[in-house]
Amino acid sequence: xxxxxxxxxxxxxxxxxxxxxxxxxxLVADLFLTEARKPLLGWIAVGGLAAAALMLLxxxxxxxxxxxxxxxxxxxxxxxxxxxxVIQLLVLGGALLCALLSVTALKDSGKRLPEGEYWFLFLSxxxxxxxxxxSRDLATLVVALEVASLPAFAxxxxxxxxxxxxxxxxKFFLSSVTATAVSLLGISFxxxxxxxxxxxxVAERIQDVDGQLATLAQTGVVLxxxxxxxxxxxxxxxxxxxxxxxxxxxxxxxxLSVIGKAVGFSGLILVTVVALPSYAxxxxxxxxxxxxxxxxxxxxxxxxxxSTRAYSAVRLLAWSSVGQAGYLLVPIAAAGYADDxxxxxxxxxxxxxxxxxxxxxxFAVAALxxxxxxxxxxxxxxGLYAASPLTALLMGFFLLCLAGLPPGVxxxxxxxxxxxxxxxxxxxxxxxxxxxxxxxxLVYYLRWTALLFRAPEGEAAxxxxxxxxxxxxxxxxxxxxxxxxxxxxxxxxxxxxxx
Length: 499
Hints:
This protein has 19 helices and 2 strands. It starts with 13 loop residues before the first helix and ends in a 6-residue tail after the last helix. The protein has helices at 14-32, 39-54, 82-109, 115-131, 138-156, 163-194, 199-205, 211-231, 241-247, 250-275, 280-305, 313-335, 341-372, 384-387, 389-403, 409-424, 428-452, 467-485, 488-493, and strands at residues 64-69, 72-80. Helix 3 runs parallel beside helix 13 (341-372) and helix 5 (138-156) packs antiparallel against helix 6. It is globular. The longest helix has 32 residues, at 163-194. A two-stranded antiparallel ribbon has the order 1-2.
């Protein structure tokens, strides 16, 4: 009789486990530290995330799986392959940069943000986000999704006595709960039709579903995809993004813009490309249309809103992130048409890594400007070069990367990669829509960039850069410049090995 006791590959599960354990350490330490020593919690969290990211290094050599079925070691619930490592690097690296922004934000906020609760929720969400790309069954996928999402609701509304923060949390909560409910209903239909939750077995069995269950399976596929479309902030499920980003503490807005997207898109890739390749004729056209709508609505929204002087920089970055989500959807849609879906998935991962680095850099500059200008309007960036030349140059570089213009070569390279994925898959019309949207986005990115170098309206006051903010700006700046010098390294690193 075979044993039902499973051995656990602790090295494979180390990255999310380290983040979760450090979260518990912070929660317990919070009980014993005096108010004056509470800032130590932030540095424990930063160190924990750095340690979790370093645990990715031993996993580079070979794929590792654990929590496998007894008698079939090929069917597992957790797999650390190249796809998993790329997303975990984005999640843990992005969370580390957001933690550096948070150290300064918590110090500036006084008692409006409770430090112990903040860091526990932050690390819990990061652990769930790191678990999700390794999930290879639908149950683990949903659990990881909720572990990543539930603490994020609280983080958005954690600012005491702030109505905007509470409203942002409520909108985020309601939209995300709706998405989860729809996804769970869809997953239950898929399970009823196939009798399994493991992604590879779903892919095998859903092709041969009995006639009576075919409609149930098709409905389950549609509902599951709709649920993940909410998570990726794809149009028309994007309505919560601008208000949530504007109302949340700025480091949490940065976290949602990168790590939140990584969670949604990695889940969408696993469900479509791994579990439901036989339904590509249904989900590929749907995702192509969603990509076109999302990039267009995001970029036009950003362009329209910039016409007022009082327009928030964070809100502009929120609309920009909706547009960027459209670009990220393009290669996933192309994977349904392409002969080599792995290459298309690699294009999405390459774009996500580029976007994560430069978008977090832009949020780091926004955090600096927000210390002097509470409203953090786009107009507040006028004359930044006179006050802080290096910061203004970095912000200009980040915006040009997001626009896809030199010297932001990594942004240009990422957009060309996505274009190529669309053209190779025969989606010429989508490549044209993307080209039009890139031109639209140029307008508001270049306007903002030009504002940095105009003469200031008053006397430019230089700001002292706090050490955590300096570290975040330096890391994102060095990463962006280095990748612009060798963009091909990103594409090589993101060859997924999913198939």
